[in-house]
Amino acid sequence: QVQLVESGGGLVQAGGSLRLSCVASGRTFSNYAMGWFRQAPGKEREFVSVISRSGDSTYYSDSVKGRFTISRDNAKNTVNLQMNSLKPEDTAVYYCAARRQVDTNPTSFEYWGQGTQVTVAS
Fold first, then answer.
1. What are phi and psi for residue 33, nearest 5 degrees?
2. Residues 6+ apart with CB under 8 A from 18
C-alpha cells in the first residue's frame, strides 16, 4: 500500500500561484511514477501532469503546459506541482496518484490521495 497526502491548496486570485505537495509513505517512493489529476464539480477527473520514477521525464496536459511544473524529491518522498498564472478554469480538487509506470489515464493509477481544493477567483 502507498499512502498519499496532499497539501497546499487554497484560494488565489487569477494570475496568482500555488504550490501543491504530496507526501508518500508505505512503499519505496522511487518505484512509482507520480501523477496529478483534478476534478471540477460535475466533470470527470482529468490528467494534469505526471513524472517518471527517476524524475527524468515529465508530461503535461495541454491546458496547463507552460504554466505548471511537476517535480519530485525521492529522498523526501514528495512530489510537487508548482502552478503559475492560474486561471478560474483551474478551479478543482487536485489529487496526487501513484502507479508503477508513467501513464495519463486516471483509471490506471493504483493509489490516490484525498485531494486538496484549489479555487481561483476571477
1. -70, 145
2. 8, 9, 10, 12, 83, 86, 118
The parts of the chain modelled with pLDDT lower than 70 are none
Place of cell 488565489: 12
Cα gap 13→28, rounded to integer Å? 37
Q: What's residue 92's pLDDT?
A: 98
Q: Grid coordinates representing 89?
A: 478554469
CA dihedral 74, 36, 21, 10 (to 10 degrees): 180
- How far apart CA 3 and CA 25 sit, in angstroms, is 5
Is 121 strand, coil or helix?
A: strand
Name 70's bridge partners.
81
